[in-house]
Amino acid sequence: MNIPTTDTAIFAGGCFWCMVQPFDTLPGIISVRSGYTGGHVANPTYQEVCSHTTGHTEAVKIEFDPALISYEKLVAIYWQVTDPTDAGGQFQDRGDSYRPVIFVNSPEQRATAEASKATLQASPIFTKPIVTTIEDAKPFYEAEEYHQDFYKKDPLRYALEHGPRDQFLNEHWKR
Q: SUPFAM superfamilies per the record (predicted)?
């Protein structure tokens, strides 16, 4: 019997540019790829997704080694890099393609994500309801190459895009 040595996690939380870096540098992370998921058009382009007609959400697909980092830890980090109380987008990114979603690929991932969401909702960190949805994983289409590793390719623009997110997160999480 072969036991898988890697697993995947798919998270959406605003612009995928801002979702890569928090996971990319962690031990046990094999890759973080920006892309689109949850829609009804095969192989969408960035322009199509931006038109808000494909049903896709910008997301990251994280390949990780569960022997080195758990899915539970990834979900905990996810909560710290999103605003789970805003269903209309994230920070300056507005619209369905930026909604917060945890896409799960197994009953175990669903149970972990739902338990973590319930714990967060019961905590005093947020006074508004946690609206991040937990949905079954759908086909994931990698974004164009110029979107991959954006924080490394254009650090100045990344910093400008990341500013409002950092301000919010610093207000809610001890960092």
A: Peptide methionine sulfoxide reductase (SSF55068)
In a domain, 89, yes or no: yes
The domain total for the chain is 1
Three-class DSSP category at 94: strand
- Sequential pLDDT tens for the chain (175 residues): 566 689 999 999 877 777 888 898 899 999 999 999 999 999 999 999 888 899 999 999 999 999 999 999 999 999 988 889 888 766 666 667 788 999 999 999 999 999 999 999 999 888 889 999 999 999 999 987 777 776 666 667 666 666 555 655 556 555 4
Q: Which domain holds residue 109?
A: 7-172
Looking at the domain assignment, is residue 17 inside a domain? yes
Q: The CATH number of the domain where 97 resides is what?
A: 3.30.1060.10
50 assigned to active site: no
